[in-house]
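Fold these two proteins, one after the other.
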Amino acid sequence: MPHLIVEYTDNLAAEGDIRGLLRKANKVLIAQGGVFKPGAVRSRALELHDYCMADDQADYAFVHCTLKIGAGRTDPEKRAACSALFDMIKEHFAALYARRYLALSLELYEFNEGGTYKHNNVHARFDSATH
């Protein structure tokens, strides 16, 4: 963990640079001073085709991000990571936000470590002992 799941409305696909957003998100999470292991960081996006927003009378758009993390981070670490991530998201979509109806949101979900199962050999690539 962490895993970032980005849900976005299909009317953002052409101009939203979603792949760029995912890359920026990974950089932000990795830059959190060792709070998250680089080999555990994953970001993915789901384009939404069926949605309804507000009164459905305008070309509304939204991006909702869910950051899922394992237990064990302090409240200040979680706040810092979420603030950095949401600031990046707002900056990424600033131009679109200025010219269209757009809602941006981020929620944090913290797993209980007793309820997760993991098998990952990517960590070895970032282990300083192997370099």
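Now the second one:
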Amino acid sequence: MPIYEFSCNECGVEFEELTGPHVGLEADSVCCPDCGASRVERLPTSSYSPIHRRLTTNERKKLESTRSVDRAARKAEFKRKRQAARDARNRSSGQG
């Protein structure tokens, strides 16, 4: 989703606008929100924020294999902790 910065040639106001086919507004058809002028100039973007996303299962496995992560040991540790939590929950509910 491209968010572009624009400057109006008429009144000089700077603003941002979300453009693209998913919004139904192309960058060349943007108008100034203050004066309504169609003569706007797209400014170069000074910075951006990268989109953070989670790794897929295959990407995580590949990363773990390059880091030599022992998946079997991690899985066994998770099962042990989950069983300990279940046992603690059963003990506390049995005493109530």
